[in-house]
From TrEMBL:
Motif stretch ('KMSKS' region): 192-196
Gene coding for it: trpS
Entry protein name: Tryptophan--tRNA ligase
Chain sites annotated for binding L-tryptophan: D132
GO cellular component, one term: cytosol
Motif 'HIGH' region per UniProt: ranges: 10-18
InterPro entries associated with the record: aa-tRNA-synth_I_CS, aa-tRNA-synth_Ic, Rossmann-like_a/b/a_fold, Trp-tRNA-ligase, Trp-tRNA-ligase_bac-type, Trp-tRNA_synthetase
Reaction equation(s) it catalyzes: tRNA(Trp) + L-tryptophan + ATP = L-tryptophyl-tRNA(Trp) + AMP + diphosphate + H(+)
Gene3D superfamilies for the chain: HUPs, Tyrosyl-Transfer RNA Synthetase
Task of the protein: Catalyzes the attachment of tryptophan to tRNA(Trp).
Enzyme class at the top of the EC tree: ligase
Origin superkingdom: Bacteria
Subcellular location: Cytoplasm
Amino acid sequence: MKQIFSGVQPSGNFTLGNYIGAMKRFVDLQDEGNCIYSIVNLHSLTVPKEASELREYTLQLAAMYLSIGIDPKKSILFIQSQVPEHTELGWLMQCTGYIGELERMTQYKDKSEGKEVVTGGLLTYPALMAADILLYNATHVPVGEDQKQHLEFTRDMAARFNKKYGETFVIPEPMIQEFGGRIMSLDDPTKKMSKSSPNAGSYIALLDEPGVIVKKIKRAVTDSEGTVRYDKENKPAVSNLLTIYSACSGESIDAIVARYEGKGYGDFKKDLAEVVVDALTPIQEAYKNWINSPELTTILKDGAERAHAIASATMDKVRKNMGLVTF
Ligand code: ATP
Ligand code: MG
């Protein structure tokens, strides 16, 4: 049986990139193994946040998980900070990893570049992420392509720890989609779409109104060729839009390309906006109910209790193997 763990940060407006690259698959995986999904709010603190903002995004993300189809009867859904073992193992992972390894991480380089203030947490983020995964004996971790390097780090930490202290952790496998694993920004196809981007035009948020989606897609950069075809190397922007089209409609890229033969980007973009709106409308409808539902906190409390039971058993083993004295 697969043991599946993944998390999303409550750090902004959840994007189509988060959905296509990771969250959409969380739903299907519920029938393939034991799924544990987290709202990783401690990770969001690596970039300074207002308390009110963090609180709001945390509940929004909980409602979003449920709106896309995460079923609390099948999966554990919880807030990371409600299970204190994450910070405890996070520290132990900081003491397992090396600064050189952490400094090589591209997310750290990207997110610290040009910033006046860079927190220590931004550098040690992968140690906390390793803890998140290893606490639950995860065998499989569905993530977007940008998290591949952090997953490698997690595997290295698990192996290093096991070698030094004896068999303790399961070594997890990343599950990264070849197609849709990296959705690019609408304004710059060399950058990945990110919910924390200061430019709202660079992403489609899952909660964007239809009119906003139409506008954002209309403004999305393309190229001067004028032909709708898939060529990631030479036509990254149009290829990205085709990927979004295919992921939202379920149609193959070939079928989509064939339909737009001899037509320009205008027609393509108009239909793409419709396809995206159609995919997001049922999620937005469900969200309206979940965000106001008193059940939300009950689900999260129950999830934290269930997660805590697994995490505390792992920590007992870790403390014993590491020589952290307990009575
Ligand atoms: P932030 O900018 O705050 O880091 P983010 O959009 O990168 O936000 P995360 O919470 O860091 O979102 O990541 C949640 C999941 O979404 C991860 O599995 C990540 O790999 C995936 N993901 C993020 N951006 C993309 C993208 N552009 N394409 C595909 N998957 C993505
Ligand atoms: Mg991210």
